[in-house]
Design a protein that fits this description.
11 strands; single chain; 4-stranded antiparallel beta sheet; PH-domain like
Length: 195
């Protein structure tokens, strides 16, 4: 097992152990780790170790050490789904676009285990749909969003809706109410700042 090191700036460095492998790789910086995830060279299910963690853990459990992701799970979001949504959106946005919030569906139909995510940036609202193989990302620039709505479904869940035109409404159901409220608040702020 390789020893972890910190660079001259005292930044954390990470060792990675891919599933099915015996020898870890590294050290990697946080930036390297994110790049490897973005390029799909490692999986959120691979193991990671850094000084102070104590034991090897799956990346999706400790990826919140990456500050860019940790503030997206304040409202109880599924950390693994947040990491996936972050990676997918990061792959398509430019350097001048910032991700502000990621909400994750709490439950879906009885037969489906896939979940949708809603991602708010300063320039777009994205809907991430998990498919049988891979993901589909829908992007809606704020200038094309006429309005957003929220509805309390009861039992701590809500629906977030996008109005994209007179006859074009997109609903994402079964999102924890706290996340729906945050989506609605941020979407209203974004719409106002663009409009």
């Amino acid at each position: 097992m390789s020893e972890l090191q910190t660079d001259s700036a005292n930044e954390l460095t990470f060792s990675i152990l891919r599933r099915g492998e015996r020898d870890p790789e590294g050290p990697y910086s946080e930036h390297d780790l994110l790049a490897l995830l973005n390029d799909r060279k490692i999986s959120v299910h691979d193991m990671v170790y850094y000084e102070g963690i104590g034991e090897w853990k799956p990346i999706h459990e400790v990826f919140e050490v990456q500050e860019q992701i940790s503030h997206f799970v304040d409202d109880g979001q599924d950390t693994e789904k947040v990491g996936i949504a972050f990676r997918e959106v990061s792959n398509v946005i430019g350097e001048t676009e910032d991700i502000y919030y990621i909400a994750v569906q709490a439950k879906v139909g009885l037969l489906s285990k896939t979940k949708q995510c809603v991602v708010i940036t300063d320039k777009h609202i994205f809907i991430l749909n998990e498919k049988r193989v891979g993901y589909e990302l829908e992007a809606h620039p704020w200038k094309s969003v006429m309005n957003t709505l929220m509805r309390d479904e009861g039992k701590g869940l809500g629906t977030f809706s996008l109005l994209l035109g007179a006859d074009n409404r997109y609903d994402v159901n079964h999102i924890p109410l706290k996340q729906v409220q945050r989506l609605f608040q941020l979407s209203q702020e974004m719409k106002d700042s663009v409009g």
